[in-house]
Design a protein that fits this description.
The chain contains 3 helices and no strands. It is mainly α.
Length: 72
């Protein structure tokens, strides 16, 4: 699945500050990572050292439940 982001999103403006854009891009990356984690097979999960239930729990978290290290 490919997501298209309008180029206006990346233009500086008085409303959208660089820090806000970075935060939104981080949340998008988190969403994609969680989706990918939920799609891994058992062998791939074993390679990274987590169980299917742990992967499902992480993939089911809402987008605003980001790690504290990602918050600005």
């Amino acid at each position: 699945m490919r997501i298209s982001i309008p180029s206006a999103f990346f233009r500086p403006s008085s409303v959208t500050r660089p820090r806000t854009r970075l935060s939104l891009l981080n949340l998008l990356a988190l969403w994609r990572s969680r989706r990918a984690l939920g799609a891994l097979c058992e062998n791939q999960l074993q390679d990274i050292g987590i169980s299917r239930s742990q992967a499902r729990a992480e993939a089911a978290k809402p987008i605003w439940d980001a790690p504290s290290s990602w918050r600005c």
